[in-house]
Amino acid sequence: MRKALLATTFAALATITAVTPAQAIRGGVEAPAAYPFSGSLQRPDSPRADGHTCGVTLVAPTWAVTAGHCTVRNPSQAQVGKPRDWSVRLGTLDAGSGGEVIAVERFITYSPNPVHDGDIGLLKLKRPAKTKPVALPDTRPAEGTQTRILGWGMTCGRRAPECYPQKLREADTVIQPAAACDGIYADRELCVGALDGSVAATNMDSGGPALVRDGDRWVMAGLVSGSGADDRPVMYTDVHHFKGWIGDVVSGRLNPPDTPVPNLEGAASLAGVCSGSVVRTSRTRENDPALLLTNGHCVPERPAPGQTVTNVPITLPVTVGDQQGYQQVATETKRVVSATMTGTDVALFELKLTYAQLRAKGVKIFKLADRSARPGERVDIVSSGNGNRFKCTIEAVVPHLREEGYTQDNAYRYNPECTPVHGGSGSPIVLQDGVTVVGVHSTGNDSGEQCTANNPCEVAADGSVTVHQGARYGQQVRHLAACAPARTPDRPRSPAAAPRGCA
């Protein structure tokens, strides 16, 4: 399976799931000198202190090129738009200092599905760079061509500070036959690196260049896209294939409009792997620690069938976005108030910030409903993980939903046009008033299998089983009003007092 070489957005994913990326720019060394036209895309959602997320290369005075999956991974997954607080740092050995820093005014991605359609994007800079752009190729480089690869990619298999190199790394390698790269699109990608993967790009090298010599100058042959495996060379987007598109954008002949952005206000992200929302009930007060609603299966150690987890201390990163989905506040969880996957698939986390502190930062706070949504009722699903606000209808209330040994009762099934996908787990299901949460998105049947992981089945009262391939499902939350902690911050409720309605 092909994977993009970017530590995805971005948070501390390693706190809840094991990740095993390749090592280093493997086989490389610290670069002895900077490349004036090459640099780093810096974003506030980077897990790194230096802000690095992807490599960039200057191709015109006010334009830099990078991987398309580096630009389309914005809060709303827009193909074209104006980012917030993105910048490039050019001509430095250190991703966190030196060089020339220029704010990014706009991004244009070749395709909204870059890995499959063309993994390249352009960044328009707010002012011209002082340095000279790199030369672009006149032809596609031949197999066996010597090339130099650059990047600040990870040097070990953990998303942790010790794995983020401070200094730029480089390695000399060759362009391999396309067949050496599993999953390559041979018409528009290059296969670059050692055949055994001992010299190759790695995670967070995405967008970085493959350079070839033309006399006394460097020419940019490709940019890092993705890897089929750690023991293989890496796929690079063939810059020559997209040279015409680059020229059209840079010259202004092609100037696509910004992608419309849905209203994502209040959409929360839990550790970068699940969606959620900050919710209150009639029992909560302004100085109470705020509650985050998500799925039970989003708890790092999933509750076993029949189990409800209550009052367990746990620290996970949480971000909440503004209307465009950009981070409005970052905080952490303090404990799991209640989480289960039996009868329902919901979890409530207590945050380290209070409702009053979140309101002071302008964060939208939702209200837990005291009723269920009715079949035929229109709802919105607001998803940080999908970067979308889905307009949906509750098609049915399913007596029992069974998946991988778990059973949930009275689950919502949405209309077929409502299609939240993986990453949308935990997204709030919101009534048309825009604030009242009647459920939480949880799962969907991907491949038509019966009652397996990612393939829930419906079980009727008489025990008959039905499968709806492509159907998506959510859980009700009206029972959660009893989960609001009945306490003051200086007088915690004992764990034994957790209300039974949380289960």
Features:
16-stranded mixed beta sheet, disordered C terminus, Thrombin, subunit H, mainly beta, 6-stranded antiparallel barrel, 503 residues, elongated, single chain, 4 helices, 31 strands
Would you write up a description of this structure?
This protein has 503 residues and is mainly beta. The chain has two domains: 249 residues, Trypsin-like serine proteases (Thrombin, subunit H, Beta Barrel); 235 residues, Trypsin-like serine proteases (Thrombin, subunit H, Beta Barrel). The protein has four helices and 31 strands. The strands form three sheets. It has a 16-stranded mixed beta sheet that branches. A six-stranded antiparallel barrel has the order 10-11-12-15-14-13. 50% of the residues are buried.
Q: Largest sheet, if any?
A: 16 strands, mixed
The CATH fourth-level homologous superfamily of the largest domain:
Trypsin-like serine proteases
The amount of beta strand, in percent, is: 35-45%
Residue share in helices? under 10%
* Gyration radius from CA atoms, angstroms: 24 Å
Integer count of domains: 2
Ranges with pLDDT <50 over ≥5 residues?
A: 7-24, 487-501
Topology readout:
Layout: E1 3-4, E2 29-30, E3 38-42, E4 52-60, E5 63-66, H1 68-71, E6 80-81, E7 87-90, E8 100-109, H2 114-117, E9 121-125, E10 146-151, E11 169-176, E12 189-192, E13 209-214, E14 217-227, E15 234-238, H3 243-251, E16 268-270, E17 274-280, E18 289-294, E19 308-313, E20 317-321, E21 327-340, E22 346-354, H4 355-360, E23 366-368, E24 378-383, E25 388-403, E26 406-414, E27 428-430, E28 436-444, E29 457-459, E30 465-466, E31 472-476
